[in-house]
Amino acid sequence: MAMTITEKILAAHAGRESVSPDELIEVRVDLALANDITAPMAIRVFNELGKDAVFDRQKVALIQDHFVPNKDIASAQQVKLMREFARKHRIRHFFELGETGIEHVILPEKGLVCPGDLVIGADSHTCTYGALGAFSAGMGSTDLGAILATGKTWLKVPATIRLVYEGSLRPWVGGKDLILYTLGLLGVEGAVYKSLEFTGDAVDRLSMSHRFTMANMAVEAGAKNGIFAPDETTSAYMKGRSARPGRYFNSDPDAGYEQEIRIPVDDMEPQVALPHSPDKVKPVSKLDAIPLDQVFLGSCTNGRLEDLREAAGLLKGQKTAAGTRFIVIPGSPFIYKEAIKEGIIEAFLEAGAVIGPPCCGPCLGGHMGILAEGERALSTSNRNFLGRMGHPKSEVYLASPAVAAASAVMGHIASPDAL
Amino acid sequence: MKIEGRVWKFGDHVDTDLIIPARYLNISDPKELAKSCFADVRPEFVREVRTGDIAVAGINFGCGSSREHAPWAMKAAGIAAVIAKSCARIFYRNAFNIGLPVLESEDAPGMLRDGARIAVDILRGEIREADTGRVFLAKPIPEFMMKIIQSGGLVSCIRAMDTHGYGNGV
């Protein structure tokens, strides 16, 4: 039976020849992930289930990344709970400060996810790993707690929307612009319960960094997962990262898609999402010069080395505009170190940016870079919901690292061409 | 399963940040979280909500984060069920997992006023407005989700099945 890549991975993990959309299946999980917000509740559920041990201590990742270094006693207590659970159950993948970074950045970086894997995380942006040709989806703490105990979960097989990106991208247009444009097309409820499959010659040429950005935001259309077929770019990225070979699945040519959407990219400009929804998207040239109090470069969407490199390259010795704060947060210690070696961090510091330790930081308004009443920010993160970065009367615009750098220098939302 | 209470009405795309803002996520005790439920959009909610009340919303309720703190905060505040035109995937799953039933109804959210008294029959998917006697129908809850809700949540459901998995056919 012809299947999509998502259906093939699900069938393989359900021990089935084939699966079809809307079927309920039980699957085994290759990696279960929780963070300092979601792990404490998951651990409570695990304990309530009365199991002595986690299903496989090699296949659990507990990542402290939202409120670290701990911002207060309550968040310190949450991490302490994780740390003690990790010690007790000898969890292989628990990282202390200095080693830890943003979950969706460090898991691929450390080779913990391979093509063909099935990953469930108690974080909605777990869909990021679809960039590697894995099935990955976010769930809540109770589901994750049950997975810690059993190694399994149930899933409804999603129908797939095939997105075909055709043509050549203009300079300063990349994965973030493609996914923002797509969210504008689909709307925030346009893919609820569906799988988004990213295809076409334009994405075939994209680096892994840009693919991670796109898969990361599949959930902003409500999708269960977003996925790319793994190719030479994927295998080059995986080289030396994991001892496991992974399984390189591909959709059959006659696989059943619920919908196919063709997106020509030749004329696409950098895109910006307006407050307060990731689907309120406009090309940057259609916006007036909107003044900014803060620019944030980082997050699981765009805190990778390539993102920092691109933004720093654009700065070219220029300064952050007076009246605008620029916050840069590398996604992992590895990225931080590389960015120092390449002179990227120095470029940001020279421009007047402040560099944060690897963490989720301002993205969710919980820790560092919180907005006051009436303030306006441009962020490279994935969500601009009302009050997302702080005061309910603040505003967040979403855009790429290139637009972020240009906007920090100009002090208002600007195209990279403005520099 | 029958629930009677007052309607707390919300619009479309109510995200998990609105249900419980991230600044409160350094706590995971549902009772504590309940104190900040809808803090930014309806500050009066926590003061005035009564046990058994029902949240009624438009499309895509609970979109955004996977934080289970959102349904926990609602449930611990007293909300006994959610009726929405449609629900985001993770929230829907989370709500059932913690024993908070969700009904999806095309008509009810548009017709029910804030504060209206309603009686909800979860099993039959029937919503009855006390004052007018109007009845709205919800989509049937999938059998598997019903099993979770009838057990009181996923933890009790797994315990009851006493297996490593989720029972017949799943």
Proportion of strand residues of chain A: 15-25%
Low-confidence stretches of chain A: none
Which regions of chain B are unreliable across 5 or more consecutive residues at pLDDT < 50?
none
The span between the termini of chain B is: 24 Å
- Biggest protein-protein interface? A-B, 54 and 44 residues
| Terminal Cα span of chain A | 53 Å
| Number of helices in the DSSP assignment of chain B | 8
Global geometry of chain B: globular
Work out the helicity level of chain B.
25-40%
Description of the structure:
The complex is a heterodimer of chains A (419) and B (170). Chain A is of the alpha/beta class. Chain A contains 14 helices and 18 strands. In chain A, the strands form five sheets. Chain A has a five-stranded parallel sheet with strand order 4-3-2-5-6. In chain A, helix 6 runs parallel beside helix 8 and helix 11 runs parallel beside helix 14. The longest helix of chain A has 16 residues. Chain A is globular, with a radius of gyration of 20 Å. The mean pLDDT of chain A is 98. Chain B is α/β, with parallel strands linked by helices. In chain B, 31% of the residues lie in helices and 18% in strands. Chain B contains eight helices and seven strands. Chain B has a seven-stranded mixed sheet with strand order 4-3-2-1-5-6-7. The chains are: A alpha/beta (419), B alpha/beta (170).
List the defining traits of the structure above:
heterodimer; A: 419 residues; alpha/beta; five-stranded parallel β-sheet; 18 strands; globular; B: 170 residues; seven-stranded mixed β-sheet; 7 strands
